[in-house]
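Researcher: Go.
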Amino acid sequence: MRASHTSPPKCTPGRESAPRDVARGIIPGMLYLAVTAAAMALAGRADADSRPPNIVLVLADDLGYGDIGAYGSRTIRTPHIDRLAREGVRFTDFYVAQAVCSASRAALLTGSYPNRVGILGALFPTARSGIADQETTLAELLKLRGYATAIYGKWHLGHLPPFLPTRHGFDDYLGLPYSNDMWPGRPDRPEFPPLPLYSKDAVLTLNPDQAQLTGEYTRRAIAFMEANRARPFFVYLPHTMPHVPLFASKRFQGRSRQGRYGDVVEEIDDAFGQILATLRRLGLERETLVIFASDNGPWLSYGDHAGTAGPLREGKGTAFEGGVRVPFVARWPGRIPAGRVTREPAMTIDVLPTIARLVKAPLPSLPIDGLDISPLLLGDEGARSPHEAFYFYFGSELRAVRAGRYKLVLPHRSDTLEGPAGRGGEPGKYVTVDVPLALYDLVADVGESTSLTDQHPDVVARLQAVAERAREEFGDSLTERTGRSVREPGRLP
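Model: Structure:
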């Protein structure tokens, strides 16, 4: 059900009149000033403690696990994202729910597996569906606590009026309704309509200059933070890039040692630095939780126009680690200890319930799948992942499950590169191959190179039972199962 958007009253400390004995001069003037100053400082701290933190959530598109310095890149310079990792926490085993655009974003914003909320794959410009009105988004949840909310970037949860961000909790919106390659400039899909850039509910322009998007999203985000500095705010900044086609503004063209792809990522990092600098200038660093992540792994077929999954196997569109494991770093000075690294697994479905806990907001009325990972985020001693297992679907196919250190890849068919990757924006050729049942120890073998099914039949059996629970909940087209907990997306005739 749609949550009410009524904002609570502001919590501003009132001015107290001086005690009567102070007014009579019993406390000397200087001491009175000191007492008053101390009282005001305490009141200010109490007000800060009662105000929930600002939330800034930055999401890159198709950024690989190995594309930023904090995760091993030596060719792309990302000093601002790396600084966030040094000053906060870096997750080594953080996952998206599906390795593709719309499904991944549905999980992030609803706290549910995309199969539960009925949004699978990537919605095309011809789609008549989108996020259902009954789902509670992270923005709607934060509105209950009086937040100002905005999204600047790629939405991809439905482009028709009932599905736009402003209908689902966001006060302001500037961005593309779907991926930037869904335009007439795509050689294999010339039937695509002109690419719209939205401002709130209206199309601002068609086929915008994509080289200006990263900068424009950032300028709008900064202006929004400045305008709402006196109240809690939520800024969701899902960048269009580095999804192909790649565009960087003139200042960043030719700057990176990794060609155009590196130029684009370095501009995103510079934009991120501007966000951090704005929080510092506004005096809001200690009052703001900042998160940086990616929506899935790299689109490997694009070769020099794609990123790298580092030590991980495969990339976008697969259930292997290179598709579903992504960078995730977070900072909240004074609350998140600096320089932490956690190897406990977590997923984007956990972002909503964790933020709900931190801001003291109620969870959605409909069932969700994410769990509170604030102990991992805040560095509680002995904190462990609250999940028994994670499910990895692609569309309606259950392709893998992870429990603890082990991951069971289920038999399915998946795309992989045949021959060389693409160059200059042209993709290489994918072929579809049979993927057999395999068991991987992700602690010892993060690259998923050696199956242990014969060595650990007991673990295989245990994870097969986990997979069966997933099928009962969400179905599985590979085994012709229908889930009992699947909700319909929003649909128009």
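Model: Residues 231 and 357 are 19 Å apart (CA to CA).
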